[in-house]
Queue: 2 jobs
Job 1
Amino acid sequence: MDIFEGRQAIRERLLSDATHRMKNIMGGISGFAALILKDLDEGSHHYPLVERIQENVIRLDQFLLDVMTLVRERTMYSETIDLPSTVRDVCVNHYADPADDNPDYPFKIESSPSRIPFRADPLLIRNGLYHALQIVDALSSKIETLRIESDDAAVSLRYIFVCDKSLNALKEDILAGLGSIESVDIQLSLAVCLKLMRMHQGEVQIDHLDGKRWIFLLRFSLNDR
Amino acid sequence: MDIFEGRQAIRERLLSDATHRMKNIMGGISGFAALILKDLDEGSHHYPLVERIQENVIRLDQFLLDVMTLVRERTMYSETIDLPSTVRDVCVNHYADPADDNPDYPFKIESSPSRIPFRADPLLIRNGLYHALQIVDALSSKIETLRIESDDAAVSLRYIFVCDKSLNALKEDILAGLGSIESVDIQLSLAVCLKLMRMHQGEVQIDHLDGKRWIFLLRFSLNDR
């Protein structure tokens, strides 16, 4: 069935080209919407409709990134980012309106060392971190801490969270790959997260810490990078 | 790299689900645009902008179908269609505004027998025929005839067209799979067409007929269907 057998480079190029063009078309839609919005009063009854168009383009862009992540074989681009800043940025963006007076918003993020240079596709790694947060959010009643640590061999992100249910079944599912998780949203998040981690020599794990506390672990190997 | 190894059903379901949701979001954009358009004069300077939004959604939908065709393993749905009617329909839609007084518009389509029941995913097969036409259009200076024939073993569509250049290189490319065709549009069309044909037990071939006339052949096997 695979017409690209032995021609992965062609497949990747065509998918990459089609993605760019879809992004351009979506950019066009946003642009036309912005032109209309510029002329409108906020009170105009067209205003919320045009805003909905813009919101839908953003959602579409997210799905496109996810789908392309699932079907592509490798990262096409990478640069050195500071991992703790990226993690903080994704966490803060993920939750609406941080409380200005809360330095631990949305939860405590600890990093050791405080800066960790990390080679990755910035767009993809942000998407992976976004989906990791979606997963932990869905599993937990509360996220306590996110600990980022680096040594010579690996970088690890430990999301420590409280969960009232037993996570053994899910843990097995995750270790086995995907499996019988019910929510399609979480399945998609998990699939994208797993794929992105592998694209960056990373892996996903769930471990029990104590009592009702669990660790969702993203671990990137620093060898062969 | 493939987190779906041995879990093709999960992969197909997730891709299918993500596609449906992208289509819903695009439907939303079209719907909001239609609501705005309903209120507007054709003379309003917003009118063409909203129309462009709608056109872009249609182009996006086409790319989404193409990308999903390239990455999916199998058809999910099939029904019995009449192949000659579908072919005629796609050909007429492909060219703008048929001349009312020309029974052979856009070119002569002959079918023997006149009706050929054919089991396929109607959306996918139409997309395959659309791309086949894109390819033949790009290769030819003129399409003369499209001959649809059916016997017990196979259904074949022969696009007979005139081409001033030698097609040997392209012919080899097509037989080999893809290769060194320069235009990305045609590469995408060819990749989608090849993939769709294989999904429906079909194959693509280019043969020399005589002089400057060539045959672009789509052949569907009727065994194992």
Job 2
Amino acid sequence: MSQPLRLGIAGLGTVGIGVVRIIRQHAAMLKARTGREIVISAVCARDPDKDRGVSLSSYAWETDATALATRDDVDVFVELIGGHEGIAKDAVEAALAAGKDVVTANKALLAIHGQALAEAAEAAGRALRYEAAVAGGIPVIKALTEGLAGNDITRVVGVMNGSCNYILTRMESAGLSYEEVFAEADGLGYLEADPQLDVGGIDAAHKLAILSSIAFGTRVDFDGIALEGIDRVSIEDIHAAADMDYKIKLLGVAQKTGRGLEQRMQPCLVPDTSPLGQLDGGTNMVLLEGDAVGQIVLRGPGAGEGPTASAVLADICDIARGLRGPVFGVPADTLTASVPASAQLPAPYYLRMSLEDKPGALARIAKVLGEAGVSIDRMRQYGHEDTSAPVLIVTHKTTPAALNEALGAMEGTGVLSGTPVALRIEDV
Amino acid sequence: MSQPLRLGIAGLGTVGIGVVRIIRQHAAMLKARTGREIVISAVCARDPDKDRGVSLSSYAWETDATALATRDDVDVFVELIGGHEGIAKDAVEAALAAGKDVVTANKALLAIHGQALAEAAEAAGRALRYEAAVAGGIPVIKALTEGLAGNDITRVVGVMNGSCNYILTRMESAGLSYEEVFAEADGLGYLEADPQLDVGGIDAAHKLAILSSIAFGTRVDFDGIALEGIDRVSIEDIHAAADMDYKIKLLGVAQKTGRGLEQRMQPCLVPDTSPLGQLDGGTNMVLLEGDAVGQIVLRGPGAGEGPTASAVLADICDIARGLRGPVFGVPADTLTASVPASAQLPAPYYLRMSLEDKPGALARIAKVLGEAGVSIDRMRQYGHEDTSAPVLIVTHKTTPAALNEALGAMEGTGVLSGTPVALRIEDV
């Protein structure tokens, strides 16, 4: 009979307690599935006396995560503290140095220090696994690393921050402004302590950087992501996009191009009938595209006790079964430096602007677009009661450079009222 | 350096050639991802002289699959012949007996002989893997066996036959009858040589039986599936369902109930706004539900050279990495006998009937429903030009027994024109 797999769990917040619950409740099931008993040796959290709704008295307590990570009776260090510096990083490094396997839900840690940690893990012959770090309960790391191992991955697209998707869908359904829904979500505790992590796209970009590394065999490159949050998405754009059969999503996209690796996190339009367009509320969705498989879509809860604990358990079970593949799908020392794309691939764009109510205003706009090489696919001018006319344009595929040239030239026409909004339309 | 992993591929149809192509085209990538070279030692197909569009001259040829399966220079036998008896079964058994790992895309073989084969594989300490057997390119076996290993699985729901989904969506979009679209699909070569495998739900039921075994730790039990194909789905029902905001799908459902394991493959209604309701054409979709994760939805191509070969490669890569878990997620000798549910769980039902144009006809129907304990959620009576009036009813949750009692009693009312249609509405 195999020896039990002994865990040390650092961080007893929602997810940590979720992991403890599953291990207690499903001990027999986990043993049947992995061939080994999975037990908790020790835990660690800031306040040992807090009532967490589950009895922890049978586990050794540590107040120091590094002390926990290096205990002799711990085989796997489960890091659920969070943050890319300080305690979490120190403890993960100490665990790997002490020959422990590591399971973490820490996207920031992986996105920023993934390369060094992967090298440390592989040098030590240990696993460093992080299914819970990306898209919560969706087994997307496994799908990409193992399920699509026979594919040259061509693109990864995802909605990977449930709070942003909640805000955008709530704006549409309730007809509220970004500021109103932001305040509402913040009041309900839906946002991180630093809300910029959510609405600024940082959290989602951490996840994208991780997926991108696996997909393209490149060193994780968070800084290479063109990053824009959802704070400039207005209810007017949501309504106008809907009018043209689109939804606005905070979309992470990573793809190989002839000009380097394109990684971006930005509000984009997607067709309202596409799986991404139909994704409402806090749910996550990731599209994985490969040369053999075509497109796979994975959808599920991106956060919460159960879903995140489910992902942590998947990693623990894999380790119990003896699975110890390279951290990012290929050996870390063979990952190539990511060369950020010099420009984004051409795409159609959505433009919304107000034109002064002057004869020939629209013709002027059409002319500068044409001169910049931007051709118009669809255009709508709306009835209006004041002196400016709302106009929506969907362009054919164009380069961001041509679009920017056109936007610059528009300013010189003297017919614009205010600044035009331009949003990329993603082909999904 | 690890030794190369040597394959013997039996069956060089679309999928077999797809596998050969990937291995040739992506040799370096596969080696980087698995740490081993993956090579083809030998192949086997009926006609060695046929032009398959890819050069096979560097591989040894066998005319007998069992001879291929037992060659000394084969580590993994890749069975892409198909069929649950005869050559495929003999060769898989021979491969396992000879200590080879086996990868197969053969859903019928697993659904019918899965238990014996799993026992043989595990006794020999070999892998028997079949990602390609269920839902084509979607890594659903991996998601269920590994990705959700920390979950008590509560339900599996899927659209797993692309041809049926194509027929149903094409009926709706073109307004054609089942017979017309069937003939069209058959003419286009979309259906199996024996179309009953598709439209009778057998192919999809094979897949459901496999998923059900993994999900619930039961011996694969194809015969325990309540099976009904799509041939009684009429264009009238598709239109009427759409009128009530539903789509009709050939849905496979497996769930544990207090009365045993419920496994069924039948046309069901699903809300048209649900991911399943929005699934058009030949795409597959599987919903996996677990106590921790909630619901995960996986969507992707269910057939075709690339997607199926992608799934075969995932298995090959796992074997190259040394992954050899139990065939159905837990050791085969611990799988319990499935106890088929004595009755299906209660559900809402859709009823469509024509009533004689007599006073009080609808009241009679409502009365017998009420007497059987079936309550009405929504009801619509349509205008009509002949002597019978079309009526649609959506019931509240009811047991199939109560529904059948009501349907029986309706016959006695004398107000029915023709036989009512009843379809289950699945909560997805």
